[in-house]
Every structure is written in C-alpha cells, then in structure tokens.
Amino acid sequence: MNVRNLFIAIVSLSWSISSVGQSNLLNAKTPDQIGLKTAAQLDSDNDKPLAYGYVHDRDVLMGKTTWEIIDLSEKINFALYFPIDTANIGSDRRSLYDVLTKALKNGEITEVYTDSYFNTKKSLQDIQGSLTRVDTTDAGREQLNAGNRISDEYIVRQDLSAQDVTQYKIKGYWYFDKRQSELKYRLLGICPITPDVYTMNSDEKDYIELFWVFFPAAREVLHNAKAFNDKNSAMPVSFDQILNSRRFNSLIYKEENVYGDRAIEEYMKDNAQNQLLESERVKDKIRNFESDMWNY
C-alpha cells in the first residue's frame, strides 16, 4: 500500500512539473493560447536559474582552467545543434546558436568578447559584421564601373545560420572545494565556431571563433530557452541545465600552463592520436586530484 501511495505521489509530482513544459497545451482553444500561463501560474512559478553558491578563495584547494571543444556532429550534442530549419517549427524550439544571436541583437546578452580571456568587448556592430556577408554580382559590378547605382537585385546578402555552426568552444574552471570536499566545475565562457562568412562558399573554409559570451551573465537567457528532450517532450531541458550539468561530450584542447596557455596541438603536432591521449591525460590529472585526497 505504501509503495502504491509513493508511486501516485511520484506520478503527480512528475505531472505537475511536466505541465510547465508546454503550459496550457491541453486547455488552449486556439493555437495562440498555447504557452500562455494564467496569473495564478505566474505567481506560483519560481522559474529562475539555480544560483551559484558563494565560494571563498580560501576554500579553493586546487584550481585549473581548461578549454574544451564540443563537436556538434556527435549525437549526444544534437540538443545544442538542432533545430537548424525553423521555417516549419514552433517558436519555442530554437538551437543554442539562434538563442545566443537573438539575445545579442535584443540586448539581453551584453557581455560579449573577442577572446576567452574576456579582455576586449565586441559591439553589436562588430558581431553583425561577422554574421552577414553583403556582396555584389558581376552585373552589379558592371553597373558600378559604369558609374550607375547598383540595382537591388544585384546585391547578394548571406547570413550565417545554425546549420553553419560546427563546434562550440567552452572555457571552464575545475576546482576542489575543501569546505565541501568535492571537485566542482564552473563554466565561464562559450563560443560558437563557424566558417568565416566570406569563405563559407569556398571549398576551403576558414573557421573562426565568432564571439565569446561570458556564461554567468547569459544564464537567465539560456534558462528561459528550452532544448528538446528526446525522452520526454513534456519536460524540455534548458540550455543552462545542459551546460551546467555537462550533459554533452567534449574534448580538452588547452589547459592553463606556464607556456602562455599553449594549446595541445602546438606541442603535439601532426599526430591526432597523441593529441587525444594528451587530452585524456589532462582530464585524468584533474580527476585524480579528488581521488588522491582520500588516499593515505
């Protein structure tokens, strides 16, 4: 009997949580009512990203900054990549790239930088110049050479899209909290890797770091944006949860070091296998620190 009551309680709790995933879906009389919450729901919701706990510098027994690559061609990382075609899908389904670029254009994310050290900020104008290519056809150039105004049909505009994103680079900090005796990870920055907009149509594309977003400043936006949950579409997972809980596969390509934070490929040249082994060595070195704390 107790098991039955426990099962009912779990099902009831799951239903109450999942109902938030697609709010008002079963009560909507018209499509535009889907996703709208009542005043009572809005008052009862406490839908905010889980706040980071305060960590004093003296509580960090060991720390190591690492840079990783998330390859979007791997199936486990598809939640960050799809959907790439938003023409025939609801407005609540967007890829991580679309979420970031839309928030940048709307001014919801302002902490955007040129590199992973967050030294130089990028303006919206700089970002838009990296997202869009404006070119002129041969007929338009003939008009220009003749001293005439270029007709609009001869001006070609091409934008980067979610389909063009091949990887994400992330920067994070591994640290051992001696107060809680636990190895933890704090994500600091994320960067989409795309072809240079001016080489995207060529055979040899030049891939660049589009921009670096300081992750703690973007958590509110990423929490409100939901990724598709393949196991239960009634309970979508926010991008903030995916990234903070490390629900992705990645490869360390650089760690902070005395050589100016040189990347692995700079001292393991022309040998992909050795680069992979070195990446695993860096990972094991960090992970073994926690286990060594309990060996006497």
UniProtKB/TrEMBL annotation:
Domain of life of the source: Bacteria
NCBIfam families: GldN
Protein name: Gliding motility protein GldN
